[in-house]
Specification:
684 residues, alpha/beta, six-stranded mixed β-sheet, elongated
Length: 684
């Protein structure tokens, strides 16, 4: 102890004071000696006696003082330890590897053992593994939230140096090598978490409800029973709201506002928003079932922002065809429902309004650029040709962006490229499009509403005048800055929509035979020769094109396949795997084909002709990506399946693009199918 324990600070100064006094006495003695030598000698003798006595006392009392100071420190330490030991806050000291060396009573009660000494910390809190402990020289403090015995705790662990502890005292200095220990503080935050959860549960949730086919449903029921139908729907909505401690109020004849809490919303999610099926089940003789769409905004900083979220969500729900719930939680969007086929609307008011709006936009712009999705297909090309005719009608230059024409559209494009009546710059690539576009250019996107799917996404940032014409359901990724967005999921094809728009665009509109053929071909391909998703308005659009010179035989000749495409399609059908006795999964060869994705889509259509197949999925490897073509007749919603893989589409026509090996995509697809079967997404 004498080697390692030394006095320091105030104690050192107190014991050194007699020695300092000797120096003062010597100075006085020198002065006295100068006055009187005899007196100086006497004083010097006194100093010698004083110094001897001081040294004797210092050597005699120093060990006793040190011993008493150590006894005091020991007693003080016991008192301090008793306070810490009886402290309500659980506290422990452990090694840097997580072994408990000492703990107070609260910590021992928490650990459910009489003596927590030599127990590893992960034996008390299973969440605290060795890799989560603080590391000397890297992470001095670690904070972990964990649970034990149905209570929540916050565990704070901190590295402590023994050298630091010794240096904080004013009595001793420690000269041995430095070692480290770890302190552990455990804070019970069960009540705090409970209050936080209550605040979270009581957060405001706003929703907008819309009866999708209000007018059509009323027209399908007797006049005297219409008020009863509406009363029953109102009653069902009110009952549903009261069951979840919420409120629904009507703001228009077919619109409602939902006021609820986040806790109630979670309960609605568990039941998968049964109100969708409840409203559809209301039947008092109406031939068309009523469907409901709901957009919900949640987790916004203000109530007004929640309402904006709800507006955005209901627009997305309606854009996806209705009969579903869309929840916008910040940037996250989730979907519920949407399993039924979209109801075709008999009214063409929307087409007429959009036609006039499109005409006004064209008249106020210097130039029009049209682009579809990557790997332009017949529907995208036909719709672009229809927009070209509209632009020519108002004497505006129109350019269609097509980067790499496939074999399926080359015959259609040839009839325009070789025709002197059409501008040589009618078809351009992305490079030329970037040169032509400016702030006064109208950009029209057809057959897609996803910016990443377009032929040239850069064009979307070059102008603020953007129009979207599409028949696919909206997903999380949409072109948000469009001045005009005409998205109708019930439409069979974009060509059908454009054909309707042209009928209201101008009474003097004249469509050439080549243009009519191209648009008719788009409808023909997307409806699989009028066997898929072809409604009344589809045939009316086809009749309009026939009246304007479209020839069925000419179109059929242009759409004929070459022998390689036919063989690839046949190979895909031959090697198809029937999964779960109802799902056909096939791989389409792509080697040597100019349009492998088109062939894959054709193979998916043909697989539906096999008895017992409810849905078909054909995978095609092209340009480093796997393109999936999904088809169904009426028993499976392939659009919901494709959304789980990052794609989308319609109930019976959908697709996706995945950057992964084709066998991994096959496994992924099977997992999604299994999940949907378990959740009952498959129609019975």
């Amino acid at each position: 102890m004498n080697n390692n324990l030394k006095l320091k600070g105030s104690m050192r100064r107190i014991f050194a004071w007699p020695l300092y006094l000797v120096l003062i006495l010597i100075g006085i003695d020198i002065a006295v000696f100068a006055i009187n030598k005899e007196a100086g000698a006497i004083v010097f003798l006194g100093i010698i006696i004083y110094l001897c006595v001081a040294i004797i006392l210092f050597l005699h009392y120093r060990p006793r003082v040190s011993t008493e100071m150590i006894d005091f420190a020991n007693e003080y330490g016991k008192f301090e330890n008793r306070i810490i030991d009886e402290f309500d806050l659980p506290y422990a000291i452990m090694t840097t590897k997580g072994k408990i060396l000492w703990s107070n009573k609260s910590f021992q009660e928490l650990s459910d053992v009489e003596n927590a000494k030599n127990i590893w910390i992960n034996a008390i809190f299973s969440d605290i593994k060795s890799d989560k402990l603080p590391v000397v020289g890297k992470v001095d403090t670690t904070e972990i939230h964990t649970t034990k015995n149905n209570r929540s705790y916050r565990v704070v662990m901190q590295i402590v140096s023994l050298l630091d502890v010794i240096q904080n005292t004013e009595l001793f200095e420690f000269t041995d090598d430095t070692e480290y220990l770890m302190t552990v503080f455990v804070y019970d935050e069960t009540d705090l978490q409970s209050y936080i959860q209550k605040c979270e549960d009581n957060k405001l949730v706003l929703g907008i409800l819309h009866l999708d086919n209000y007018d059509e449903a009323l027209e399908s029921v007797e006049y005297v029973r219409r008020s009863l139908l509406l009363a029953l729907i109102d009653r069902k909505l009110s009952k549903y709201a009261s069951d979840f401690d919420s409120t629904i109020r009507k703001i228009e004849k077919d619109k409602f506002v939902l006021i609820s809490t986040k806790k109630s919303l979670e309960a609605m999610k568990i039941q998968k928003f049964s109100i969708l099926e409840t409203v559809k089940s209301v039947n008092i003789g109406n031939k068309i079932p009523v469907t409901l769409s709901m957009g919900i905004g949640v987790s916004a900083p203000t109530g007004r922002q929640n309402y904006e979220y709800a507006k955005s969500a209901i627009e997305m729900a309606l854009g996806r065809g209705g009969d579903q719930v869309v929840i916008k939680d910040g940037k996250a969007i989730s979907y519920y429902g949407g399993k039924s086929m979209q109801v075709e609307k008999n009214t063409r008011v929307k087409a007429r309004v959009n036609a006039q709006a499109l005409k006004e936009l064209m008249l106020t712009r210097d130039r029009v650029i049209v682009m579809g999705h990557k790997i332009t297909d017949v529907d995208a090309l036909g719709a672009a040709i229809g927009i070209y005719r509209a632009g020519q009608n108002v004497e505006k230059p129109v350019h269609i962006v097509v980067n790499d024409p496939t074999t399926s559209i080359k015959p259609l494009m040839a009839s325009f490229i070789s025709n002197e009546k059409y501008d040589p710059l009618m078809f351009i690539d992305s490079v030329k499009a970037r040169e032509l576009i400016d702030a006064n250019t109208l950009l029209i996107v057809v057959d897609t509403n996803r910016p990443s799917y377009t032929e040239c996404p850069e064009l979307l940032t070059k102008t603020k005048s953007i129009v979207v014409l599409d028949h696919h359901r909206r997903g999380n990724e949409v072109i948000e800055n469009a001045v005009l967005s005409y998205v109708e999921p019930y439409a069979s094809s974009t060509c059908e929509m454009v054909a309707e728009v042209l009928q209201y665009f101008d009474d003097k509109m004249k469509i050439t035979n080549e243009e009519a053929d191209c648009m008719y071909a788009g409808i023909l391909i997307d409806t699989n020769n009028f066997t898929t998703r072809a409604g009344v308005r589809t045939f009316e659009a086809a009749a309009f094109l026939r009246r304007n010179g479209s020839d069925v035989v000419r179109v059929r000749k242009m759409l004929r396949d070459n022998i390689d495409s036919y063989k690839a399609r046949a190979e895909a059908v031959r090697t198809a795997e029937i999964y779960k006795e109802s799902f056909a999964i096939a791989k389409c060869p792509s080697e040597g084909l100019e349009s492998p994705t088109v062939v894959g889509a054709q193979a998916a259509n043909e697989l539906l002709d096999i008895a017992g197949v409810k849905a078909s999925f054909v995978m095609t490897l092209y340009q480093g990506e796997v393109f999936i073509s999904a088809r169904a007749i009426d028993e499976v919603n392939v659009q919901l399946i494709m959304e789980q893989i990052g794609g989308g589409g319609h109930l019976n026509v959908a697709g996706a693009q995945v950057k992964a090996p084709i066998e991994e995509v096959r496994v992924m697809l099977k997992q999604v199918i299994d999940k949907f079967i378990e959740e009952g997404a498959e129609k019975k």
